[in-house]
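Hi team, as promised in this morning's meeting, here are the two structures we talked about. I've kept the exact order from the run log so nobody has to guess. The first one is mostly here for context; it's the second one we should focus on when we meet again. Sequence first, then the predicted C-alpha coordinates.
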Amino acid sequence: MARRLRVMRTVPALRRAVELFRKKRETIALVPTMGALHAGHLELVRQARRRAERVVVSIFVNPAQFAPHEDFGTYPRTWGSDIKALNDAKVELVWAPSAQVMYPEGFATRIAPEGPAKAGLEDKFRPHFFGGVATVVAKLFTQCRPDFAMFGQKDYQQLRVVTQMAKDLDLAVKVIGVPTLREKDGLALSSRNVYLSAGERANAPLLHRVLKASAERIKKDEKIEDVLDVGRRQIDLSGFTLDYFEARHAETLAPIASRKDGPVRLLVAARIGKTRLIDNIGV
Protein backbone atom coordinates (compact mmCIF):
# COMPACT_ATOMS: atom_id res chain seq x y z
CA MET A 1 0.00 0.00 0.00
CA ALA A 2 1.44 3.38 -1.02
CA ARG A 3 2.34 5.75 1.76
CA ARG A 4 0.46 9.04 1.68
CA LEU A 5 2.11 12.32 2.57
CA ARG A 6 0.54 13.99 5.57
CA VAL A 7 1.02 17.57 6.75
CA MET A 8 1.05 18.20 10.50
CA ARG A 9 0.58 21.70 11.92
CA THR A 10 0.18 21.14 15.67
CA VAL A 11 2.50 19.48 18.17
CA PRO A 12 -0.13 16.99 19.43
CA ALA A 13 -0.88 15.82 15.88
CA LEU A 14 2.83 15.47 15.14
CA ARG A 15 3.43 13.50 18.31
CA ARG A 16 0.61 11.08 17.48
CA ALA A 17 2.08 10.46 14.04
CA VAL A 18 5.60 9.96 15.40
CA GLU A 19 4.30 7.62 18.08
CA LEU A 20 2.77 5.40 15.40
CA PHE A 21 6.19 5.10 13.76
CA ARG A 22 7.76 4.28 17.11
CA LYS A 23 5.18 1.62 17.95
CA LYS A 24 6.17 -0.13 14.72
CA ARG A 25 9.84 0.17 15.74
CA GLU A 26 10.53 2.19 12.60
CA THR A 27 13.54 4.49 12.44
CA ILE A 28 12.99 8.16 11.61
CA ALA A 29 15.16 10.64 9.71
CA LEU A 30 14.43 14.36 9.89
CA VAL A 31 15.26 16.85 7.13
CA PRO A 32 14.89 20.38 8.57
CA THR A 33 14.19 23.02 5.90
CA MET A 34 12.80 26.51 5.49
CA GLY A 35 11.02 25.48 2.30
CA ALA A 36 11.83 26.91 -1.16
CA LEU A 37 13.06 23.41 -1.86
CA HIS A 38 15.64 22.69 -4.54
CA ALA A 39 17.63 19.64 -5.64
CA GLY A 40 19.94 19.99 -2.66
CA HIS A 41 17.05 19.52 -0.24
CA LEU A 42 15.81 16.54 -2.22
CA GLU A 43 19.29 15.00 -1.98
CA LEU A 44 18.96 15.32 1.80
CA VAL A 45 15.65 13.44 1.51
CA ARG A 46 17.30 10.70 -0.57
CA GLN A 47 20.09 10.34 1.97
CA ALA A 48 17.52 10.27 4.77
CA ARG A 49 15.65 7.44 3.07
CA ARG A 50 18.86 5.42 2.86
CA ARG A 51 19.23 5.59 6.64
CA ALA A 52 15.71 5.36 8.00
CA GLU A 53 12.36 3.73 7.32
CA ARG A 54 10.41 6.97 7.75
CA VAL A 55 11.33 10.47 6.58
CA VAL A 56 9.98 13.65 8.16
CA VAL A 57 10.62 17.01 6.48
CA SER A 58 10.05 20.18 8.43
CA ILE A 59 9.15 23.41 6.62
CA PHE A 60 9.46 26.43 8.85
CA VAL A 61 10.89 29.84 8.03
CA ASN A 62 12.34 30.55 11.45
CA PRO A 63 11.98 34.23 12.40
CA ALA A 64 14.42 33.78 15.29
CA GLN A 65 17.40 33.43 12.96
CA PHE A 66 16.74 36.60 10.94
CA ALA A 67 17.91 40.03 12.06
CA PRO A 68 15.52 42.97 11.43
CA HIS A 69 17.51 44.08 8.35
CA GLU A 70 17.57 40.60 6.78
CA ASP A 71 15.21 38.98 4.29
CA PHE A 72 12.63 37.21 6.49
CA GLY A 73 9.73 38.96 4.78
CA THR A 74 10.98 38.26 1.26
CA TYR A 75 12.54 34.83 1.84
CA PRO A 76 11.26 32.54 -0.96
CA ARG A 77 8.12 30.66 -0.02
CA THR A 78 6.96 28.02 -2.52
CA TRP A 79 4.56 25.81 -0.57
CA GLY A 80 2.72 24.24 -3.52
CA SER A 81 5.82 23.14 -5.41
CA ASP A 82 7.49 22.06 -2.16
CA ILE A 83 4.65 19.70 -1.27
CA LYS A 84 4.54 18.28 -4.80
CA ALA A 85 8.29 17.62 -4.72
CA LEU A 86 8.08 15.93 -1.32
CA ASN A 87 5.11 13.84 -2.39
CA ASP A 88 7.02 12.74 -5.50
CA ALA A 89 9.96 11.86 -3.23
CA LYS A 90 7.63 9.66 -1.16
CA VAL A 91 8.07 11.61 2.06
CA GLU A 92 5.66 10.36 4.73
CA LEU A 93 5.29 13.39 6.94
CA VAL A 94 5.70 17.15 6.66
CA TRP A 95 5.93 19.17 9.86
CA ALA A 96 4.80 22.71 9.01
CA PRO A 97 4.10 24.66 12.20
CA SER A 98 3.25 28.34 12.32
CA ALA A 99 5.42 30.80 14.21
CA GLN A 100 2.71 30.90 16.88
CA VAL A 101 2.98 27.14 17.35
CA MET A 102 6.77 27.23 17.59
CA TYR A 103 6.97 30.37 19.70
CA PRO A 104 3.67 30.70 21.56
CA GLU A 105 2.73 33.56 23.84
CA GLY A 106 5.07 33.54 26.84
CA PHE A 107 7.88 31.61 25.10
CA ALA A 108 10.96 32.53 27.14
CA THR A 109 13.70 29.93 26.61
CA ARG A 110 16.53 30.20 24.10
CA ILE A 111 19.75 28.27 23.59
CA ALA A 112 22.98 30.27 23.54
CA PRO A 113 25.56 28.06 21.76
CA GLU A 114 29.29 28.63 22.08
CA GLY A 115 32.25 26.65 20.71
CA PRO A 116 31.85 26.51 16.91
CA ALA A 117 29.05 29.09 17.18
CA LYS A 118 31.64 31.64 18.34
CA ALA A 119 34.25 31.01 15.65
CA GLY A 120 34.27 34.51 14.16
CA LEU A 121 32.75 33.39 10.85
CA GLU A 122 28.99 33.67 10.31
CA ASP A 123 28.57 34.70 13.93
CA LYS A 124 30.71 37.79 13.34
CA PHE A 125 28.35 39.06 10.65
CA ARG A 126 25.10 37.53 11.96
CA PRO A 127 25.49 37.47 15.77
CA HIS A 128 21.83 36.57 16.28
CA PHE A 129 21.89 33.62 13.90
CA PHE A 130 23.12 30.56 15.77
CA GLY A 131 21.05 31.21 18.87
CA GLY A 132 17.98 31.16 16.64
CA VAL A 133 19.16 28.06 14.79
CA ALA A 134 20.08 26.13 17.94
CA THR A 135 16.78 26.93 19.61
CA VAL A 136 14.59 25.94 16.68
CA VAL A 137 16.61 22.80 15.88
CA ALA A 138 16.47 21.65 19.50
CA LYS A 139 12.70 22.08 19.36
CA LEU A 140 12.52 20.14 16.08
CA PHE A 141 14.57 17.33 17.56
CA THR A 142 12.35 17.02 20.64
CA GLN A 143 9.16 17.35 18.58
CA CYS A 144 10.05 14.86 15.82
CA ARG A 145 12.22 12.47 17.89
CA PRO A 146 14.39 11.46 14.92
CA ASP A 147 17.15 8.87 14.94
CA PHE A 148 18.97 10.84 12.25
CA ALA A 149 18.92 14.47 11.13
CA MET A 150 20.25 15.51 7.74
CA PHE A 151 22.03 18.83 7.21
CA GLY A 152 23.80 20.06 4.10
CA GLN A 153 27.50 20.82 4.35
CA LYS A 154 27.05 24.12 2.49
CA ASP A 155 26.07 25.68 5.83
CA TYR A 156 29.15 24.17 7.42
CA GLN A 157 29.33 26.24 10.59
CA GLN A 158 25.65 25.53 11.19
CA LEU A 159 26.36 21.81 10.79
CA ARG A 160 29.13 21.99 13.40
CA VAL A 161 26.95 24.03 15.80
CA VAL A 162 24.02 21.59 15.54
CA THR A 163 26.32 18.58 15.91
CA GLN A 164 27.89 20.05 19.05
CA MET A 165 24.50 21.00 20.50
CA ALA A 166 23.09 17.50 20.03
CA LYS A 167 26.17 16.04 21.71
CA ASP A 168 26.25 18.51 24.59
CA LEU A 169 22.52 18.17 25.37
CA ASP A 170 22.56 14.35 25.08
CA LEU A 171 19.93 14.45 22.36
CA ALA A 172 19.30 10.97 20.97
CA VAL A 173 19.87 11.91 17.33
CA LYS A 174 22.80 11.39 14.98
CA VAL A 175 23.47 14.51 12.92
CA ILE A 176 24.56 13.66 9.37
CA GLY A 177 26.35 16.14 7.12
CA VAL A 178 25.51 15.65 3.44
CA PRO A 179 27.95 16.93 0.78
CA THR A 180 26.95 20.11 -1.02
CA LEU A 181 25.05 19.70 -4.27
CA ARG A 182 26.25 22.05 -7.00
CA GLU A 183 25.32 23.38 -10.39
CA LYS A 184 27.50 22.19 -13.29
CA ASP A 185 29.62 25.34 -12.99
CA GLY A 186 30.26 24.71 -9.28
CA LEU A 187 27.80 27.14 -7.68
CA ALA A 188 26.42 25.66 -4.47
CA LEU A 189 22.65 25.20 -4.60
CA SER A 190 20.84 27.66 -2.36
CA SER A 191 17.29 28.98 -2.07
CA ARG A 192 18.77 32.49 -2.22
CA ASN A 193 20.29 31.92 -5.68
CA VAL A 194 16.98 33.12 -7.10
CA TYR A 195 17.98 36.63 -6.01
CA LEU A 196 20.93 36.70 -8.45
CA SER A 197 20.68 38.73 -11.66
CA ALA A 198 21.91 37.08 -14.88
CA GLY A 199 25.28 38.83 -14.61
CA GLU A 200 25.67 38.00 -10.94
CA ARG A 201 24.74 34.38 -11.59
CA ALA A 202 27.46 34.15 -14.25
CA ASN A 203 30.04 35.51 -11.80
CA ALA A 204 28.92 33.60 -8.69
CA PRO A 205 30.83 30.33 -9.37
CA LEU A 206 34.11 32.20 -8.85
CA LEU A 207 33.83 31.53 -5.12
CA HIS A 208 33.96 27.78 -5.68
CA ARG A 209 36.83 28.12 -8.15
CA VAL A 210 38.84 30.08 -5.59
CA LEU A 211 38.07 27.47 -2.92
CA LYS A 212 39.21 24.61 -5.16
CA ALA A 213 42.39 26.34 -6.29
CA SER A 214 43.26 27.33 -2.71
CA ALA A 215 42.69 23.79 -1.43
CA GLU A 216 45.03 22.42 -4.08
CA ARG A 217 47.75 24.91 -3.12
CA ILE A 218 47.41 24.04 0.56
CA LYS A 219 47.68 20.34 -0.29
CA LYS A 220 51.04 21.19 -1.90
CA ASP A 221 52.10 22.62 1.48
CA GLU A 222 52.03 26.25 0.48
CA LYS A 223 51.71 28.53 3.48
CA ILE A 224 48.04 28.84 4.39
CA GLU A 225 48.05 32.58 5.04
CA ASP A 226 49.72 33.26 1.68
CA VAL A 227 47.09 31.13 -0.07
CA LEU A 228 44.29 32.97 1.73
CA ASP A 229 45.73 36.36 0.79
CA VAL A 230 45.73 35.43 -2.89
CA GLY A 231 42.20 34.10 -2.69
CA ARG A 232 40.92 37.21 -0.92
CA ARG A 233 42.40 39.45 -3.61
CA GLN A 234 40.81 37.35 -6.36
CA ILE A 235 37.40 37.62 -4.73
CA ASP A 236 37.74 41.35 -4.06
CA LEU A 237 38.74 42.03 -7.66
CA SER A 238 35.83 40.04 -9.11
CA GLY A 239 32.92 42.23 -8.02
CA PHE A 240 32.27 40.66 -4.62
CA THR A 241 32.23 42.30 -1.21
CA LEU A 242 34.09 39.78 0.92
CA ASP A 243 32.97 39.04 4.47
CA TYR A 244 35.54 36.31 5.14
CA PHE A 245 37.76 33.71 3.52
CA GLU A 246 39.30 31.54 6.22
CA ALA A 247 41.03 28.23 6.88
CA ARG A 248 39.73 26.52 10.02
CA HIS A 249 39.96 23.22 11.86
CA ALA A 250 37.25 21.10 10.25
CA GLU A 251 35.72 20.02 13.57
CA THR A 252 36.25 22.85 16.05
CA LEU A 253 36.41 25.72 13.50
CA ALA A 254 39.37 27.12 15.43
CA PRO A 255 41.92 29.10 13.36
CA ILE A 256 44.56 26.90 11.79
CA ALA A 257 48.05 27.79 10.57
CA SER A 258 49.08 24.62 8.74
CA ARG A 259 47.82 21.21 7.70
CA LYS A 260 49.67 19.75 10.68
CA ASP A 261 47.18 21.46 13.01
CA GLY A 262 44.39 19.11 11.94
CA PRO A 263 41.88 18.58 9.15
CA VAL A 264 41.39 21.84 7.26
CA ARG A 265 38.16 23.41 6.02
CA LEU A 266 38.14 26.51 3.84
CA LEU A 267 35.10 28.74 4.33
CA VAL A 268 33.99 31.82 2.41
CA ALA A 269 31.14 34.35 2.56
CA ALA A 270 30.74 37.25 0.15
CA ARG A 271 28.08 39.51 -1.29
CA ILE A 272 27.43 40.03 -4.96
CA GLY A 273 24.80 42.66 -5.62
CA LYS A 274 22.20 42.20 -2.89
CA THR A 275 22.82 38.48 -2.46
CA ARG A 276 25.06 36.96 0.19
CA LEU A 277 26.64 33.64 -0.77
CA ILE A 278 28.48 31.16 1.44
CA ASP A 279 30.49 28.11 0.50
CA ASN A 280 33.22 25.82 1.85
CA ILE A 281 35.45 22.93 0.90
CA GLY A 282 37.59 20.37 2.70
CA VAL A 283 41.33 20.22 2.12
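And here is the second protein, the one for discussion:
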Amino acid sequence: MENVIVLDHPLIQHKISLLRDKNTRTKEFRELVSEVSMLMSYEVTRSMPLKEVEIDTPLGVANANIISGKKLGVIPILRAGLGMVDGMLKLIPMAKVGHIGVYRNPETLEPVEYYCKLPEDVCEREIVVLDPMLATGGSACSAIEYLKEKGVESIKLMCLIASTDGIEKVNKNHPDVTIFCAAIDGRLNEKGYIVPGLGDAGDRLFGTK
Protein backbone atom coordinates (compact mmCIF):
# COMPACT_ATOMS: atom_id res chain seq x y z
CA MET A 1 0.00 0.00 0.00
CA GLU A 2 1.13 3.53 -0.73
CA ASN A 3 1.86 6.34 1.71
CA VAL A 4 1.58 4.11 4.78
CA ILE A 5 4.20 3.80 7.50
CA VAL A 6 3.64 1.02 10.04
CA LEU A 7 5.52 1.68 13.27
CA ASP A 8 6.74 -1.70 14.47
CA HIS A 9 8.80 -0.63 17.49
CA PRO A 10 8.51 -3.34 20.20
CA LEU A 11 7.12 -0.93 22.81
CA ILE A 12 4.41 0.25 20.43
CA GLN A 13 3.48 -3.28 19.40
CA HIS A 14 3.35 -4.44 23.04
CA LYS A 15 1.05 -1.60 24.03
CA ILE A 16 -1.19 -2.11 20.99
CA SER A 17 -1.67 -5.71 22.12
CA LEU A 18 -2.79 -4.49 25.54
CA LEU A 19 -5.19 -2.04 23.88
CA ARG A 20 -6.75 -4.87 21.87
CA ASP A 21 -7.43 -6.91 25.03
CA LYS A 22 -11.12 -6.65 25.93
CA ASN A 23 -10.20 -6.94 29.62
CA THR A 24 -8.16 -3.72 29.62
CA ARG A 25 -10.13 -1.23 31.70
CA THR A 26 -10.90 2.39 30.87
CA LYS A 27 -8.13 3.95 32.99
CA GLU A 28 -5.45 1.67 31.55
CA PHE A 29 -6.85 1.99 28.04
CA ARG A 30 -6.70 5.78 28.23
CA GLU A 31 -3.12 5.68 29.53
CA LEU A 32 -2.05 3.26 26.81
CA VAL A 33 -3.52 5.38 24.02
CA SER A 34 -1.59 8.37 25.34
CA GLU A 35 1.64 6.37 25.64
CA VAL A 36 1.39 4.88 22.15
CA SER A 37 0.63 8.32 20.71
CA MET A 38 3.73 9.75 22.38
CA LEU A 39 5.91 6.94 21.02
CA MET A 40 4.46 7.31 17.53
CA SER A 41 5.18 11.04 17.63
CA TYR A 42 8.89 10.33 17.28
CA GLU A 43 8.38 8.95 13.77
CA VAL A 44 5.61 11.33 12.75
CA THR A 45 7.92 14.29 13.46
CA ARG A 46 11.10 12.72 12.05
CA SER A 47 11.06 14.90 8.93
CA MET A 48 10.84 18.20 10.80
CA PRO A 49 13.69 20.45 9.57
CA LEU A 50 16.55 21.59 11.79
CA LYS A 51 18.85 24.57 11.76
CA GLU A 52 22.25 24.94 13.40
CA VAL A 53 22.73 27.46 16.19
CA GLU A 54 25.39 28.27 18.76
CA ILE A 55 24.57 27.45 22.36
CA ASP A 56 26.50 28.72 25.38
CA THR A 57 27.03 25.75 27.68
CA PRO A 58 28.51 26.05 31.18
CA LEU A 59 31.88 25.07 29.66
CA GLY A 60 31.90 26.78 26.29
CA VAL A 61 30.13 27.21 22.97
CA ALA A 62 28.49 24.26 21.20
CA ASN A 63 27.13 23.95 17.69
CA ALA A 64 23.65 22.51 18.15
CA ASN A 65 20.43 21.89 16.21
CA ILE A 66 16.96 23.26 16.87
CA ILE A 67 13.69 22.74 15.00
CA SER A 68 13.07 25.26 12.24
CA GLY A 69 10.49 25.77 9.52
CA LYS A 70 6.75 25.45 10.02
CA LYS A 71 5.39 24.86 13.50
CA LEU A 72 3.19 21.89 14.33
CA GLY A 73 -0.57 21.72 14.65
CA VAL A 74 -2.49 18.78 16.10
CA ILE A 75 -6.09 18.18 14.99
CA PRO A 76 -7.96 15.35 16.74
CA ILE A 77 -11.15 14.07 15.17
CA LEU A 78 -13.74 14.13 17.95
CA ARG A 79 -14.23 12.35 20.08
CA ALA A 80 -11.81 9.43 20.07
CA GLY A 81 -8.95 11.52 18.69
CA LEU A 82 -8.89 13.44 21.98
CA GLY A 83 -7.25 10.46 23.64
CA MET A 84 -4.16 10.89 21.47
CA VAL A 85 -3.54 14.59 22.11
CA ASP A 86 -1.85 14.51 25.52
CA GLY A 87 0.72 11.98 24.38
CA MET A 88 1.79 14.22 21.52
CA LEU A 89 1.81 17.36 23.65
CA LYS A 90 4.17 15.74 26.14
CA LEU A 91 6.80 15.79 23.40
CA ILE A 92 5.67 18.90 21.51
CA PRO A 93 4.10 21.19 24.13
CA MET A 94 4.17 24.23 21.84
CA ALA A 95 1.93 22.63 19.23
CA LYS A 96 -1.46 24.26 18.79
CA VAL A 97 -4.55 22.08 18.97
CA GLY A 98 -7.66 22.36 16.82
CA HIS A 99 -10.74 20.13 16.81
CA ILE A 100 -12.91 18.66 14.09
CA GLY A 101 -16.14 16.91 15.02
CA VAL A 102 -17.20 14.13 12.67
CA TYR A 103 -19.48 11.20 13.43
CA ARG A 104 -20.39 8.26 11.26
CA ASN A 105 -24.04 7.83 10.35
CA PRO A 106 -24.84 4.33 11.69
CA GLU A 107 -27.09 3.53 8.73
CA THR A 108 -25.14 4.91 5.78
CA LEU A 109 -21.66 4.77 7.42
CA GLU A 110 -21.03 8.17 5.82
CA PRO A 111 -19.32 10.96 7.81
CA VAL A 112 -21.35 13.85 9.23
CA GLU A 113 -19.49 17.01 10.31
CA TYR A 114 -20.84 18.87 13.34
CA TYR A 115 -18.00 20.99 14.76
CA CYS A 116 -14.75 22.68 13.76
CA LYS A 117 -12.39 25.01 15.64
CA LEU A 118 -8.92 25.59 14.21
CA PRO A 119 -5.91 27.73 15.17
CA GLU A 120 -5.89 31.07 13.35
CA ASP A 121 -2.52 30.26 11.77
CA VAL A 122 -3.46 26.71 10.78
CA CYS A 123 -2.29 27.28 7.19
CA GLU A 124 1.20 28.10 8.42
CA ARG A 125 1.60 24.83 10.32
CA GLU A 126 2.45 21.21 9.66
CA ILE A 127 -0.79 19.46 10.60
CA VAL A 128 -1.17 16.01 12.14
CA VAL A 129 -4.73 14.65 12.12
CA LEU A 130 -5.41 12.22 14.97
CA ASP A 131 -7.93 9.38 14.90
CA PRO A 132 -7.30 6.07 16.71
CA MET A 133 -9.17 3.92 14.18
CA LEU A 134 -8.99 4.34 10.40
CA ALA A 135 -11.97 2.14 9.53
CA THR A 136 -13.97 3.11 6.43
CA GLY A 137 -11.78 6.18 6.00
CA GLY A 138 -14.81 8.44 5.67
CA SER A 139 -14.21 10.59 8.75
CA ALA A 140 -10.50 10.99 8.05
CA CYS A 141 -11.09 11.96 4.41
CA SER A 142 -13.79 14.42 5.43
CA ALA A 143 -11.51 16.07 8.02
CA ILE A 144 -8.57 16.24 5.60
CA GLU A 145 -10.77 17.73 2.87
CA TYR A 146 -12.03 20.37 5.28
CA LEU A 147 -8.46 21.33 6.23
CA LYS A 148 -7.47 21.59 2.58
CA GLU A 149 -10.45 23.84 1.91
CA LYS A 150 -9.09 26.11 4.65
CA GLY A 151 -5.76 26.28 2.83
CA VAL A 152 -3.71 23.73 4.78
CA GLU A 153 -1.04 22.20 2.54
CA SER A 154 0.95 19.88 4.81
CA ILE A 155 -1.11 17.12 6.43
CA LYS A 156 -0.27 13.77 8.01
CA LEU A 157 -2.70 11.23 9.46
CA MET A 158 -1.83 9.35 12.64
CA CYS A 159 -3.92 6.40 13.83
CA LEU A 160 -3.41 3.36 16.01
CA ILE A 161 -5.05 0.73 13.84
CA ALA A 162 -5.97 1.04 10.16
CA SER A 163 -8.05 -1.15 7.89
CA THR A 164 -7.02 -1.86 4.35
CA ASP A 165 -10.29 -0.26 3.18
CA GLY A 166 -9.55 2.92 5.08
CA ILE A 167 -6.02 3.15 3.76
CA GLU A 168 -7.19 2.68 0.19
CA LYS A 169 -9.83 5.40 0.58
CA VAL A 170 -7.35 7.93 1.98
CA ASN A 171 -4.81 7.03 -0.72
CA LYS A 172 -7.43 7.50 -3.42
CA ASN A 173 -8.82 10.80 -2.15
CA HIS A 174 -5.68 12.30 -0.64
CA PRO A 175 -2.57 10.70 -2.18
CA ASP A 176 -0.41 13.49 -0.72
CA VAL A 177 -1.22 12.49 2.88
CA THR A 178 1.06 10.00 4.64
CA ILE A 179 -0.63 7.61 7.07
CA PHE A 180 1.19 6.56 10.24
CA CYS A 181 -0.25 3.56 12.08
CA ALA A 182 0.80 0.83 14.48
CA ALA A 183 -1.15 -2.03 12.86
CA ILE A 184 -3.15 -2.85 9.75
CA ASP A 185 -6.19 -5.14 10.04
CA GLY A 186 -7.74 -6.77 7.03
CA ARG A 187 -11.47 -6.22 7.12
CA LEU A 188 -14.53 -4.35 8.39
CA ASN A 189 -17.73 -5.86 9.75
CA GLU A 190 -21.23 -4.92 8.62
CA LYS A 191 -21.25 -1.96 11.04
CA GLY A 192 -18.00 -0.56 9.67
CA TYR A 193 -15.85 -1.56 12.64
CA ILE A 194 -12.32 -2.88 12.15
CA VAL A 195 -11.98 -6.63 12.76
CA PRO A 196 -10.30 -7.73 14.96
CA GLY A 197 -9.46 -4.12 15.87
CA LEU A 198 -10.02 -3.14 19.49
CA GLY A 199 -13.70 -2.23 19.60
CA ASP A 200 -15.07 1.32 19.78
CA ALA A 201 -12.08 3.46 20.77
CA GLY A 202 -14.25 6.35 21.96
CA ASP A 203 -16.36 4.16 24.23
CA ARG A 204 -13.30 2.46 25.67
CA LEU A 205 -11.54 5.79 26.24
CA PHE A 206 -14.42 7.45 28.03
CA GLY A 207 -16.24 4.51 29.59
CA THR A 208 -19.40 4.90 27.50
CA LYS A 209 -21.42 2.47 25.42
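Starting points for discussion:
The chain has one domain: 4-48+69-206.
The mean pLDDT is 92.
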